[in-house]
User: What shape does this take?
Amino acid sequence: MQQVKHIRRLLVAQGIIAVAIIAGIVYEIAGAYYNAIDGTYARATRARNAIMAHSTQTFTMVDQALSNIVEHSVVIVADGPDILNHYLLVRRNDLPYVEVLQITDRDGTVIATTRPRLDNLRHRDFFAEHRNDQNQQLRISKPYIGQHDVISGKWVVDLTRPVFDSDGNFSGVAIATLSLEDISQVYDDMRHTTQDIIGLVRDDGVLLTRSPFAASSIGRQVFTPEGSDQVILQTLQGDYRRTSPIDGNDRVVAYGQIKHYPLMVYAGVSVNEALSLWKRRAILDGSLGILLGAMVMAFSYLLYRQIRKNYAADAARQQAQEETDRIFRSISDAVYRIDKAWRFTFLNRQAEQLFGQSTEDIKGKLLWDAFPALRETQTKAEFEHAIQHHTMADFEQYYAPTRTWFNVRAYPGLDGLTVYLQDITAKKVREEQKHEAQRMDTLGKLTGGVAHDFNNLLTVIIGNTELIAEYVQHDKTLRGMADTSLKAAERGAKLVSQLLSYARRQQLNPSPINIPVLLDNMKHLLDTAVGNGVRIRCQHAPDVWPALADEGRLQDALINLCINGRDAMPDGGTITISTSNLHVTPDMVKQGDALAKGDYVAISVRDTGVGMDKNTLKRVFDPFFTTKDVGKGSGLGLPMVQGFARQSNGSVGIESTLGKGTTITLYLPRASSIDTTSTHIQSASLPTGKEKILLVEDEPLVKDHVCRLLKSLGYDLLCAGSGAQALQLLMAHNDIDLLFTDVTMPGGMSGPELAREARLIYPELPVLFTSGYPEQLTTENYDGLDSWLLEKPYNREQLARKIREALGAGPHTPTRQ
Assistant: This one.
């Protein structure tokens, strides 16, 4: 409907233009017509004025000549007729158009003439008029055709004045005969066109002469004293338009009376002649108007067709666009379109939710103004390349304001770009977690290998140190040295355990933790982690409760927080770790709080670094958000700490001030009790026995050490350095009471594999496994085996009690020392 309105408006506009063109041409033609008519009136007036001037001059000269003849006639007549004839002849030669000059006596007889013939003119009208009305006015006769000599056959007219003697009595008439044909010839030269007419008329309406000369009209009454012509005859000058009764031509006639004479002239200009040029111009302009109108209409038609075609194409494109938009609205990805000027034209529902703006709000806005953070990203360059080269852009982009990773696909079109945004944040988190797991797995394998060997050495050191301590127990100095060595060895074992925990190579479970003791034990590890220039200080409130948490994960979290504190102090500073108790009552719990009512242990890590502003503070726990330079931080450290705290039924809080530092506090649930047992040298008697034990250990130092320990406890020993050697001993002896084997051994056979082979020989044979690699001591590695587990390093008491446990109990679910 809207398209039809547009087309109608266009057609109306084009019609108005066509009508305006035609109207303009008609107006111009009409104006030219009236100009032509006005010009005809003007030409007629000019011609009339010229004829009046000529006629006035002519008749004035003749009249003056007659007046002179009248004045001198009495004298000249007295001198004789020859003198008078000569005088008239001289005067005639000076007068234009005058054919004859004559004088009559009172009887009408010609007494002097320029003609050779003497006539009596008393029968002429003018003679009677002068004789009867003896005034001195000039009289003009009706035109007539001359009969004799010089005027024979010519149209002439007589101008007469009366002659009086000295007494004032009428004595004759002075006559000047003018050639009307000669005057007509002069008039011919004064006409501009063949259709123009010029005429000389007496004041009674009788035509004296005209141009073109027409003998049939000479002497006719062309103006009647009655009717409409009366005005003409009585008006000094004027003009009118009339069709000539003589030739039927339409003319504009300008007329005027000759002053002092009973004459009137008129000049008629042909209207048809004047309008002929106008007609040619009108035909040309009309043709041009018709042509222009036709061109406008043709252009309108072509434009109409093109517009209809464009409208149809636009409608099809709009329909296709609406169908595309409908599809876009139904897909799960966010989709938006921008034109080539980077302005938004469409957002689907998912894009509106993602951007927090509706299509109406954002439509027409520049992409870079709506989302300034994109200006300095890969997005701008990718989009520009896509439009310039008309190729699809496919890339990944992290958008910090929404803390989201997107897979961006931009498809160029005629109107701009269609952009698909797929949220791949979860995928990126999984990838990062996978990379982190791979990294930790690699680190764990390396750490586990080192820990395995180190635990073997510690087993020997601890065992031998205990024996030395027993041998020198009466020497306080040597006993003190032995105790110190034993504590150092136990400290080394603890460090190995911490390394394994950090590398996540242990199966870690929540247990009661004495936080101050844990921090004291981790002090050296934390100092090493933060490096030089940063001091770590611990502050503990009195009687800090034990916390229930996974010790290894807690160590990870504390290391992470200390490293973050170090990075916030590029010029060095102090990290303070403080512990305290927190009791949360029901009235302290608010909606949305992460902490439920109960008791918690608070561990605060405070640095003296650069601090954070409010916007950064709101995002520190977002995955992948980091304030560190590219490549120096994954953005997962604090999210992992937060995840650990929540999994432990606790929480994490943060406070920061720009220029003053940051404090991050872990809240862990309080444990009901804590195991305060510590490793120490016991002087109580150890369990002993007489059974035969097959010891399988690939490390010679450990094998020799354990052999000595077991022999000192009374046991009969068979020792093997590999699984194959152990199988040979099993085949050779039928009185073995216990298989005590390392888990990992060279030679292609592990401890579990050896145990399964041994059970084929001794179905009820007890098995005790040991390893310096704690991950190998998880029960999942010993499916189908009833066995016991002993973790390296161990002391003599732990060994004695675990041996006795394995020998004294029947088959059971494997346990772990």
In short: The chain has a mean pLDDT of 81.
